[in-house]
Design goal:
Helix content is 14%, strand content 31%. A hairpin with a 5-residue loop joins β2 and β3. The C terminus is likely disordered. By secondary structure, the protein is α+β, with helices and mostly antiparallel strands. 33% of the residues are buried. Strands 4-5-1-7-8 form a 5-stranded antiparallel β-sheet, with no helix packed on it.
Length: 205
């Protein structure tokens, strides 16, 4: 099945059945800004921070780094307007292909503009099974407080497989993940702004 941001046809589950965690997708959606706000549209980003067993960051997947080193985590691409009918950004995780040293994945939503996430119209996020669309997390981000970054879910490797939690399990790690994600996002935005300046032929004084 191709990877993209369009809707996917789910395989129906039996009553009281939950899918085994194998292929997980984080989906992020928001609506375009209205009126004069279109000059500076809301811009959210989906990120995934990978940790090893020592709780050290292995990789950060985001619009500027859309593919992990072995291809087991893939970002579908940057959206800057929220104009998609479905998810505006997605991150796919193929758990069976993850390196053995990756023990935890933290899914994060961040505001690239620095405005509170809740100000993005219709902002929502889900973490679902790729094949069945079974949702472990379905969150309306407009109900948040003033956060500009937010952990929406955590995948952890256990002896029996992978477990997903939608609430903070490790405050220090989640804070570390948000800080690392925000730093990576700022670096990406800085590099992109310089690319746009060069493309426009503007030379620094």
């Amino acid at each position: 099945m191709p990877i993209g941001n369009s809707g996917i046809a789910g395989v129906p589950l039996q009553e009281d059945e939950t899918p085994e965690l194998k292929e997980v997708v984080m989906g992020l959606h928001w609506d375009p800004s209205e009126g004069d706000a279109n000059v500076h549209p809301e811009n959210l980003d989906a990120l995934c921070v990978l940790f090893d067993r020592e709780q050290q960051v292995v990789e950060i997947i985001h619009p500027g780094n859309p593919r992990s080193s072995n291809g087991s985590v893939v970002h579908t691409g940057d959206s800057r307007t929220g104009a998609s009918q479905w998810d505006d950004e997605r991150i796919f995780v193929f758990l069976e292909a993850l390196p053995a040293d990756v023990m935890t994945l933290v899914f994060i939503v961040a505001s690239a503009s620095g405005k509170p996430i809740r100000e993005a119209r219709g902002a929502s996020c889900h973490i679902s099974d790729h094949a069945t669309e079974y949702q472990w997390v379905n969150m309306e981000l407009t109900t948040l407080d003033t956060q500009t970054t937010y952990c929406v879910g955590t995948l952890s490797r256990s002896r029996t497989g992978w477990e997903l939690a939608s609430t903070a399990q490790d405050l220090n790690r989640d804070h570390h993940a948000q800080s690392a994600a925000l730093a990576a996002l700022r670096q990406f935005e800085f590099a992109r702004s310089h690319e746009l300046i060069r493309a426009a032929g503007i030379k620094p004084e």
